[in-house]
């Protein structure tokens, strides 16, 4: 059966890597984001690598008017409609401390924007009785740290949303995979000190597609982050509050 | 963050650079950053020496700009971003009946690097150099971005193809692909007993892809013995995707010591039966034999290695013999040594190819290696030949004087394109390439 994928935030390197892998499998791709020139390049690349169809569509997490046209376009396709969400924004915590009104944007980009989109898409997945949603969160959402807790809290909210959506869609035959990447070698982490065990975007994309095929619920990628975060989550709060990690 | 403080090397790992590196993921980011900071670009750093390094300066890592931008199935013209590995390009279009007409010895080399070094392949005698099949280049020179063709800017074009990135950052390129029946190759291998027999075999060879592996440890009557590989592309599509192996850590120094290499080469020579053999292989095997082992450069240990590659005119066979004798008695030769007959095809002022014989040999970065390479460089110079910048990390400005007859023309065009030398790299500085030969 033909697989169609809506990819939100398709200019990110993880999304690009996943689109490329899906292209090789002959998927139909809707590459959504703001930089249309860049999305057009990725679309052409996916077509060359085997995608049945690859289109660039405008998407802005802060502009809900951009949502419906994407869903309308995708649902004209027969077969399975899937969606992968890579959007999110992480301003420096210092910048947020200087201007707390930035928080609304972070929450919109990382949580409420994509949640609104998925809420509009969910009835279509229920109607077709199949389809997978991949939501990319972050290990930063597992525990609030002074370094990036605004971003972390938005991702935590999104993870909770995905958990609920999984509960809802499973009853109708759909599925939701929550992905929590550790450090990934992207433009976001380039040149930031203290990065370790950094994974390539392509390795993360491979892990995601394996999780989709195996209908996993929550994955950490690379896998060992599950154990790192297990430890971090279990540090008692009275100790954790004094730590700087 | 835009800039990352990195220490990096070329493939040979014998030369090291540190400096700030940006790795843009979008063309718009690259243009924005270059408008602010002009600096040279590098790709997968598969050139051996320091041609792509900028020690204590800044550089752009192009590997995230690696996409196909457009493809016309009617003409076979493809436009790609400069950071795309040439092997990826080959794999993407072979099943549509098109392949890059020229592919170097590694599929990891990026298209930008293939243009900047005007690389050649095993079919150079038939198809010429890579740059001859490029039809347009998007060149970012700072605030100015230009799309050039051989006709629209002939001087800048010839200074850019094989121009070591000195005219600006190559961001995108259009390439005329070559129609192909499939992505399999019929490969015939046979033993060749010595140098003279090799030269006869090259003359008699009628295949599109021809290359000789040389046992560089052989001396005396066996001098120049090796294996001739002749290939033709054939129909069929390769479906297998064998996982690549990797060399996980630096090998100890004895791994490629003289006795080990002698034994290895003997076995490698005998691997091909005395009467020769013919097989059908996926195109990538004969094209990129070493790509199947990731990080094979670690076999040379942490000190790394050098490659010497020169081309000498057809009538300089005795120099070739003298070089092989010198290498054979040095105890420094490694298993990797290649001989090939080149045609005249070249795309730019500073392109390496010339009609003649090209010899490439790896040497571990041990005592005596640099002196040996320096000696070989002088021999190539005296024979009217030249060395390949994509491989060099040893030569001096005086040694290469006169090797590239168009160097002064190139230097003038480059000065026009980049008057304040923002795109200079370590090799260009070391060899004083932009100063010209002083002949004019």
TrEMBL record, chain A:
Entry keyword Oxidoreductase: yes
Alphabetized Pfam families for the sequence: adh_short
MF terms (GO), sorted A to Z: oxidoreductase activity
Keyword GTP-binding on entry: no
InterPro entries: NAD(P)-bd_dom_sf, SDR_fam
Entry superkingdom: Bacteria
CC terms in the record's Gene Ontology section: membrane
Keywords annotated in UniProt: Oxidoreductase
Family note: Belongs to the short-chain dehydrogenases/reductases (SDR) family.
Name this polypeptide is given: Short-chain dehydrogenase
Organism field: Celeribacter baekdonensis
Automatic annotation (TrEMBL), chain B:
FAD-binding PCMH-type domain sequence ranges: 13-180
Pfam families (alphabetical): FAD_binding_4
Protein keywords: FAD, Flavoprotein
Protein name from the UniProt record: Decaprenylphospho-beta-D-ribofuranose 2-oxidase
Source species: Celeribacter baekdonensis
Annotated Gene3D superfamilies: 3.30.465.10
SUPFAM superfamilies tied to this protein: FAD-binding/transporter-associated domain-like
GO molecular function: FAD binding; oxidoreductase activity, acting on the CH-OH group of donors, oxygen as acceptor
InterPro entries named in the record: FAD-bd_PCMH, FAD-bd_PCMH-like_sf, FAD-bd_PCMH_sub2, FAD_lactone_oxidase-like, Oxid_FAD_bind_N
